[in-house]
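To whoever is on call:

I kicked off a structure prediction for a single chain this morning and the downstream step that reads the tokens threw a length-mismatch warning. I double-checked the sequence; it's 186 residues and nothing unusual in it as far as I can see. Pasting both halves so you can look.
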Amino acid sequence: MPEGNSSYYTNSAERPEDRYEDYIVKDLTAEVENRFPAATGRANRAIAGVSMGGYGAIKIALKFPEQYAFSAGISPALDVPTRSLSIKRIAQWKFHRSIFGGWGSQTQRDNDPYLLAQSVVANKMPYLFFTCGEQEGLLPANQRFAKELTARGIAFEFHTAPGDHNWKQWDQRIAEMFASLFKQFK
């Protein structure tokens, strides 16, 4: 898994040197396909991640559907671009604003999975797989995303199971993700 340095795999609004979306979509893909005997092309590519990486995998698949055939997010933090200010987490909110820009900014809109899902062509999307623990604070955001995908006719599967935002729960979801991946890639 490539290092994301708390970037949410997004090209930062305030730090031009932080181009993590470009790194994944352009640089990493080219590096892997040039350096290793990897199959090339959309039909042979998948992207997946956990938590911040799950958000990144789904957001990148929505923005670049021509690049991937499958995308998975395990406990994806889908609501991060639009999380409201919380006094308890003011430092986190400020950090998120440095990535996604001010409220309502173009960078925020360009990286909001809910808005992206509304603008994609459903039958050109990669297959989406995502999970969330039933005790996670992220569950409502993931349920809302599943409703958006259903409304748009985008192919996906969403699983919930007992568990919190931790590796005990994620380890169990990884096997489900690979089963779905292998089913999609046949």
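Update from on-call: the warning came from a stale cache, not from the record. Cleared it. Sanity check on the structure: The helical segments are 20-35, 52-63, 90-100, 106-110, 113-119, 139-152, 167-185.
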